[in-house]
Amino acid sequence: MSEDHSLSVLAEVRSEFERIRDLPFPVYASSIDTEGLFLMANPEAVRFFNEPDEAELCKKKVRDYYRYPAEREEVLKELARSEPGEWHKELTVRLRNNMKGESQKVRFVSKPFFDERGQLAALLCMVNRVGRKEWFK
């Protein structure tokens, strides 16, 4: 993704993030490059991932919080097939909510953002915790 276009995608992600950042559950945006870094996060996401603040979380790679890192690749493949501008609501994974390895079953509600070539470039995600009963339905 070129610098100009990546800035364009980032501006689009930031605008959408600002609209939903005050929701009462974890909301974050991440890049879809080899790093997969957190780009921004609301206070609920900072607490969920057990980091001291947004700046610290944004130094981390999203894939490091997957209980099973291969799940991230599956999530990205699924989201790459999504229609631009649509929220995807059917992704359930285990995320580590701290680097000690403790994990939480979650359902993502994710909005993919695509670059000028139609390639997945960034994600905006809301994290909904999944209860034990719901997980096994």
- The helix/strand order is HEEHHHEEEH
What are the segments in which pLDDT stays under 50 over at least 5 consecutive residues?
A: none
Helical amount among residues, as a percent range? Answer: 25-40%
Quickly count the helices: 5
Main beta sheet? 5 strands, antiparallel
- Envelope shape: globular
Class from helix and strand fractions: alpha+beta
The pLDDT mean sits at 87
* Intertermini distance: 40 Å
- Backbone CA Rg: 14 Å
Strand order of the largest sheet: 2-1-5-4-3
Per DSSP E runs of 2 or more residues, the count of β-strands stands at 5
The percentage of residues in β strands lies in 25-35%
Explained architecture:
The chain is of the alpha+beta class and 137 residues long. The chain is 32% helix and 29% strand. It has helices spanning 3-20, 43-48, 54-57, 69-80, 132-135, and strands spanning 27-31, 38-41, 88-96, 103-114, 120-129. The protein has a 5-stranded antiparallel beta sheet with strand order 2-1-5-4-3. β4 (103-114) and β5 (120-129) form a beta hairpin. The protein is globular, with a radius of gyration of 14 Å. The model has no long low-confidence stretch (mean pLDDT 87).
